[in-house]
Amino acid sequence: MSKRLYIMFVVLGISVFFLTVNASAQALRIDLEEGGAVGEKNLDDQPLTQEEFAVELVHVMGVENLLPVAALPGDYVDLLERLGIAPFGGWERKAFLNREDYLVIIGKAQGKEGIVHKQAVAVETKNVEIINKKWEQSYSDTKQWMTLSALLNDKAYFPQGAPRSPYGTRYTDKNGDHKVDPLFLPVASLIELQQFLSTR
Amino acid sequence: MQKKFTFTFLVVAVVSGLIFFGNYSWAEEPVVEKHSNPIAQFLKSIKYTSKLTLQHDDNIFLSEELEDSDTKEIFTQIFEQNISRNNHFWRWLYMANYELYNSEQVDVLGHTARVLYSYRPDNGFSFGLGNNFYWLEDSTITATLADRILAVGYTQISPFVEVKYDLTPRTSVQSSLKYNKLDVRGASIDDYIDNEKLTARGQFNYAFTPTNNIEGFAGFEHTQVAFPQIFEKSSNTERPFVGFVKKFADLFNFTYEAGFANIDMDDNADDNNIDHKVSIETVFSVFTKLRLSYYHDYKNASLRREFTQYGSNFISLGIDHTINPRTSVGVDYSYELQDFNDADALIGQPLVDRQTHVHDAKLGVNRKLNNWLTLNLNYNYTKRDTDFAGEGYTNNQYSAALTARY
Fold first, then answer.
1. Is a pLDDT exceeding 90 seen at residue A33?
2. Alpha-carbon separation of residue B139 from A132, B143, B150, B153, B304 (angstroms)
3. Is A111 in Cβ contact with B2 (below 8 Å)?
4. Where are chain A's structural domains?
5. Which residues in chain B land under pLDDT 70?
């Protein structure tokens, strides 16, 4: 008897479930294409926070089933992060999404993390090269070594500001040889190792 | 007869439901496919997975005394649907698992069903509710159930509800309520196994930095365990907990939680216990994932005749790596030390400490043969050493599976 009651309960549950789906979908009149909005919003005209972008990206990727039962925007960010999709330096939820972060996130989401990191390492190498060159130039101009921070803040050498590190690395000269210290980029090394183990 | 009736009834009910209520489809929207059939559209959104596994076990009865190898065919059918529309998310899944043992001439049927509804308006408030249902047919084939190795059929129902709210950009609160009912079939043992567990949990989260790379949390958990047929094993647990998540950007996340449990057993014996949970999960790549976790002295209700509860010390390590878009490999190892303390022995049972050591290692390779068919090759080694007589065993399991997804 109780089994039959249970079956009736299950059938009732299923019916209510589909009714809810039906009613909500009818009422909402959702455009199926709406989920494809990522990338359509102009980042300059209508800035998105990183968190808002994460919500849209999770929808488009169709991985909502991996979210917790109750999911706040922060959970969308955490999910993408756990999947290995994040801007360099990690997500900053309330910050506006800039073009660099957007490209890194989309690159990673499309499985192009190797290229993304290769580009970032190339930028870091170029930055170090430029800083070293300007440092030498400043010495030949003044016959005095400037400190690295003074050099980076000197508009005469860097009129548009100091080169920005993609990984958020702080350029230093701890050994005092007037050259930027070799960079320690564990993520780039890990990606290199990972690519060595792959046949992609 | 009754089983057949139940199965047929459920199938008919589900199919009718799909057809009858299938007319909700968004295909009525002119912007999509004007002339598409709503039922076809609905059915198309249901993912169907069919898996055929050939598996060989060295020791199918998981026993030291009666080691017997056998090969079985496992036929698994999964239907699932995820619907995400604006602020609403629905998910349902149904899985049927049928195992046929060749030498033993035994078959075992299992059903799993899951439903979830979640309201996620992205405005700082969210809630979700659902239910998980498991049913396993009675069988002579043994399986692991918590701290026991048993050959029983059972039904398990686990409804849950969770609510979250962002108080400020840096603080949030969440609470959840979970109920679990385990009902085994078998009059001789179910007194010690059938149980109901209710867990209510509240948690406060605080981000110490704007980038959320250090987040602290604290909360309170209340757990009621009831063994309706034997009062001695029932308990109430109050467990305040505190912890933090430290994120090393682009590298890994580290999580730590400590719990301070006061366990009030119905036989008037109290237990104070401190547990720890530590986990590390890499986040540097989409293609490679490493997980390491350790639980120390987490108390669980025992399903044994001899004890009320046991402490679980569990360590696990898992690595998944995608070699190329078609091939991925995974390695997992876990070790559990189950500690049974004499203070938790049931009345009339000997007051002795007991231990169980469980080693489990898995190796798997997945190869996509085409965009809908995948080949899975797996090896699983399990070793159980225990002070409980006749319950230790070693098993080597080899399997090859073909998985089709539509």
1. no
2. 74, 10, 10, 6, 20
3. no
4. 1-30, 31-111, 114-196
5. 1-35, 187-189, 268
